[in-house]
């Protein structure tokens, strides 16, 4: 073999070697950790835009749904986005799962406000059902509706079905007959006075909204072990959380619902169940500004809930580490992941994500501690 051929051979070998090694390395460099508060990019290198969202696990993959938020302004220009991942760290953009409509007068007309979308899978119908908070275009936060959409596949596109308030004409299960008979004129009350508080506790706004249906803003969904699903939402001017049972196809409400913590001013509910106990984390109502989270617990979803102290511990625990709860995801290893949004109202698309593991103290009470990465 001549010297020239040997050199070319060596050159080709080195090229092949470096290409294989480097290529392998480049491919294996994905996101290895969850780093809350940083800019998160999808596998195409674009910034992930999926706020106020939730995640489901289906056939070996996680699907993350969230609000697509613009760089300026507060209204919805795109819709609900979807990303998929096998490891919760590397997310592939799957497109717009629910798109706003160009049709003038549509409930989800471009320029409406779509917030806090959540998706659940219905075992019986084989459909993916999305519920979300909807405000009609040009109406501010007045309509306080819930919208529902459906798809045959997790990534969609989802077909919008309808929007409206909740359970018109029906009293909550835990409003007594005596309370149902009371009448109030809400205009006569000054907010936060003892008389007003008493009226709120007894259901002044439930009664005011009885015919139109209950208001529904920040929301989440929960599917129980018996496959019954529940819609949990901030109602009654964000003063009171309500928990409403969904029909077997998850597309409507059955009329069974309760109020919890009347006047408690709880928003951004996120729920999970562990060993038969339900745990809910919520925020207070300070708009985009972070506040102290609340923990609530119950042994039956439709009944008696009790309040516990802030589940966050450590630095910035009194402001939920700068975030606001949105969802709690059960993990494959039996753990739970707390998801929150670090809102940036000056440019909502730049809002960040906080994902942290939920831990349990010696009494089995959940708590959340900041981790730089995990
Ligand atoms: C927050 C709420 C967000 C959004 C915002 C609007 O309290 O959690 O989802 O509605 O108010 O100001």
Automatic annotation (TrEMBL):
Top-rank taxon: Bacteria
Gene3D superfamilies the record matches: Glycosyl hydrolase domain, family 43
The protein, known as: Beta-glucanase
Family: Belongs to the glycosyl hydrolase 43 family.
GO biological process terms held by the UniProt record: carbohydrate metabolic process
Gene Ontology molecular function: hydrolase activity, hydrolyzing O-glycosyl compounds
Keywords: Glycosidase, Hydrolase
PANTHER family registered for this protein in UniProt: GLYCOSYL HYDROLASE 43 FAMILY MEMBER, GLYCOSYL HYDROLASE FAMILY PROTEIN 43
Organism from which the protein derives: Bacteroides intestinalis
């Amino acid at each position: 073999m001549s010297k020239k051929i040997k050199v070319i051979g060596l050159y080709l070998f080195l090229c092949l070697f470096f290409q294989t090694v480097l290529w392998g390395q480049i491919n294996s460099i994905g996101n290895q950790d969850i780093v809350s508060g940083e800019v998160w990019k999808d596998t195409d290198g674009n910034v992930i835009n999926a706020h106020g969202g939730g995640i489901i696990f289906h056939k070996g993959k996680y699907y993350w749904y969230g609000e697509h938020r613009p760089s300026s302004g507060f209204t919805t220009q795109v819709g609900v986005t979807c990303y998929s991942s096998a490891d919760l760290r590397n997310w592939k953009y799957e497109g717009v799962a629910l798109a706003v409509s160009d049709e003038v007068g549509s409930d989800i007309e471009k320029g409406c406000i779509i917030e806090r979308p959540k998706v659940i899978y219905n075992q019986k119908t084989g459909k993916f059902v999305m519920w979300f908070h909807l405000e009609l275009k040009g109406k501010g936060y007045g309509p306080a509706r819930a919208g529902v959409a459906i798809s045959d596949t997790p990534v969609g596109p989802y077909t919008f079905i309808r929007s409206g308030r909740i359970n018109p004409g029906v009293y909550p299960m835990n409003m007594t007959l005596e309370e149902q008979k009371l009448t109030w004129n809400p205009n006569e009350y000054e907010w936060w006075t003892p008389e007003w508080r008493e009226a709120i506790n007894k259901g002044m706004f439930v009664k005011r909204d009885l015919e139109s249906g209950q208001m529904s803003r920040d929301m989440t969904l929960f599917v129980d072990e018996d496959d019954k699903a529940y819609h949990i939402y901030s109602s009654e001017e964000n003063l009171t959380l309500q928990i409403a049972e969904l029909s077997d196809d998850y597309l409507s409400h059955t009329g069974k619902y309760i109020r919890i913590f009347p006047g408690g001013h709880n928003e951004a509910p996120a729920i999970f169940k562990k060993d038969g106990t339900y745990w809910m984390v919520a925020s207070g109502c300070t708009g985009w500004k972070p506040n102290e989270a609340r923990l609530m617990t119950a042994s039956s979803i439709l009944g008696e809930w009790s309040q516990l102290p802030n589940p966050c511990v450590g630095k910035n625990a009194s402001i939920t580490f700068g975030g606001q709860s949105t969802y709690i995801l059960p993990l494959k290893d039996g753990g739970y992941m707390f998801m929150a949004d670090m809102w940036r109202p000056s440019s909502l698309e730049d809002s960040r994500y906080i994902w942290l593991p939920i831990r349990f103290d010696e009494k089995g009470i959940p708590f959340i501690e900041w981790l730089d990465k995990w």
